[in-house]
Amino acid sequence: MGKQKGFGPVQLADYAGLARWQVDRGMVKGLVPKPGLPSGRWSDEQANDIAARRGQIVEVLGDRQGYGAKRTAELLREATGLELWSADVEQLAARGLIEETGEWKDYTLYDPRVAAEPSAEVAEALREIVEQRLAWYQSSATREAAAGRCGMSELEFENAARAAGLKPGQFGRWPLDGIERLAGVKEPDVAAARMLGPDEAADHMGVRRREFDYVVAAGWISPVSQIKRTVWSGERRGYHKTVDVPLYRAGDLDAVLRIEDVDWDTVRTLKPRQPSPLRKFVSQAPKRAEAVHAFVERLRADHGLVVWSRYANLSNRWFINWVPREDGTPAVEDVTALVAADPGLAPYAGTVRLLDSVGETVHWARRMLQPGGGVLIDTETHALWGRVMEVAAIDCATGEVLLETLVNPQSPVTDGAFDVHGISDEMVADAPTWDQVLPDLLRVTAGRTPLAYNADYDWEVIVKDSRRVGLSAEHLAKRKGWGCVMEERSSWEDCYDFLPLGGGHRALGDVQCALDVLRDLATAPPWARARSQKVSA
């Protein structure tokens, strides 16, 4: 074997029996010297020295690069018994007590050895971090909740807060004392200003949740705001949905407890199935279901809409859904105003919500179909999660083909990929390479929401292939900016499974088929249409 012309990072890792990340991390830690040749490569002498010190390097760096913040928090939770968040790991790193060891898919990785066996110093720091986080949550609120407390829109609240010199803190939350001052309270009591959800409110009052619902139905307390929370259900594919949760001031709850006509000691000691004395205070308003159905029928008749309602027994909530017109009317704020003005729904304001997961999908799809709204993208690759071999993009509003091209992946197509899409090496031999296609894709998708049927897949292959050729995917690089038609379809179908597209596995055919699905999502599901027609008949 002749003298080599030096080693690149991959060759050096293979030669020394190291992982590529160990070479990179070893350079940061001073265990691996910088390349000594003018070409930017390691010399033979350097490679031999590094290979001889492999054991020392592995002992210092370990045999695993690291874990993301979420997994690190889980391991530290197991070791310390503390309820930790990913943000707590970030705080620990900021204190210099756990090392950042690299990145993976834009996620920071942390030293796995500290995560698995935290020292006493790390455990004590985590306890302090958790205490500080809990204290901050007790004395702060989200922007949405803060705006609701002040009777403002979120934009109005931010403008008023800026004028008052009020700024958000950790997690984007706002201090309660500042919120109360903006709400007109001269000497705010932070403890009284705490905003609690229904279950937390019941705990605060020392009563069962059922009794708290009676308190709300009796009109003794009203929410000052609401927040959105993610509710997880089902064991498959991590199915979840977003719900609105009303928030109540702790001070208002304390005021209810001072109502003299109620024997609160008896209420607090009620046994299961024992009738509540609070029932007699509930007004004799129409039953909630009847009030909801009456409102739905009026909304349908007055506006000529497809409208349907759904009762969620686990959260004890009624949801009102409708399909807006092509211009997006009536908007959520319009129907919110109608609900607030409806005397039949007034006693149930805290338990009637607009748009469940199905309704939210319908409204989302309508927005994506507006001019300038969404652009659908599909890729075909040379291997599973491989390089782009074909890409297409169409305008969701018009169906216009914005881009359709084969792409030379500069690597032979695998048999498995060819069996799926039928694109051969010969077909792409004269096609442009990804570095030539990416600028066109960025241009036709700029200013719109990128959508894909399986957004996780198309987003990842686009970002990976862009990195491979040394380019940035720019606005397509952030996964949170993408919409996933497949996930929204599962919500619309009200199922846990992700349904196949059936578009033929060619890029243009797949995006056109996905557009048909998106158009379906902008309408009421068949079961909802049938329910709406049955009620109106």
User: If you consult CATH, what is the topology of the largest domain?
Assistant: Nucleotidyltransferase, domain 5
CATH homologous superfamily placement of the largest domain:
Ribonuclease H-like superfamily/Ribonuclease H
Task: Give the N-terminus to C-terminus distance in angstroms.
Answer: 87 Å
Count of DSSP H/I helices: 25
Parts with pLDDT < 50 across at least 5 consecutive residues: none
Q: Mean of the pLDDT scores?
A: 87
Q: Which percent bin holds the helix content?
A: 40-55%
Task: Write down how many β-strands occur, each being a DSSP E stretch of 2 or more residues.
Answer: 15
Structural class: alpha+beta
Strand content: 5-15%
3D shape:
globular
What CATH architecture label of the largest domain applies?
Answer: 2-Layer Sandwich
How many domains? The number is 5
Radius of gyration, whole Å = 29 Å
The level 1 CATH classification of the largest domain is Alpha Beta
Q: What topology, given as strand order, has the largest sheet? A: 13-12-11-14-15
Biggest beta sheet attributes: 5 strands, mixed
Q: How would you describe this protein?
A:
The chain is an alpha+beta fold and 537 residues long. The chain folds into five domains: 9-58, no CATH class; 69-138; 195-284, no CATH class; 288-353, no CATH class; 370-521, Ribonuclease H-like superfamily/Ribonuclease H (Nucleotidyltransferase, domain 5). The protein has helices at residues 9-16, 20-29, 44-52, 54-61, 69-80, 86-94, 112-116, 120-138, 143-150, 154-163, 176-182, 190-193, 198-205, 209-217, 250-256, 264-268, 288-303, 332-341, 357-368, 415-421, 434-445, 455-468, 485-493, 507-521, 526-536; strands at 100-104, 107-110, 140-141, 174-175, 195-196, 225-232, 240-249, 307-312, 317-322, 352-354, 374-381, 388-395, 401-406, 449-452, 483-484. The protein has a five-stranded mixed sheet, with helices on both faces. Strands 5-7-6 form a three-stranded antiparallel sheet. A hairpin with a 5-residue loop joins strand 12 (388-395) and strand 13. It is globular, with a radius of gyration of 29 Å. The mean pLDDT is 87.
